[in-house]
Amino acid sequence: MSNTPHxxxxxxxxxxxxxxxxxxxxxxxxRLADAYDAVNRAIHRAETxxxxxxxxxxxxxxxxxxxxxxxxxxxxxRFGAFEEQP
Length: 86
Hints:
Layout: H1 8-11, H2 16-25, H3 27-47, H4 55-84
């Protein structure tokens, strides 16, 4: 079991600038990123036995983190495509 935090800027280093920018200007993106950070912290706390949870809850939290990460990645991809257009 990994207990490495999965921060967004570490998950998507090529989008670090876009993450900062979108957090400032896009309310929806900021809410998604905040939700990702919250579930990510909860997973990390569970993995390090600070706040242990059962296996079912851990699986559900990991699925939620993955769902949020996928949605965030989609927004970052659209932002990147928008930025590349002349």
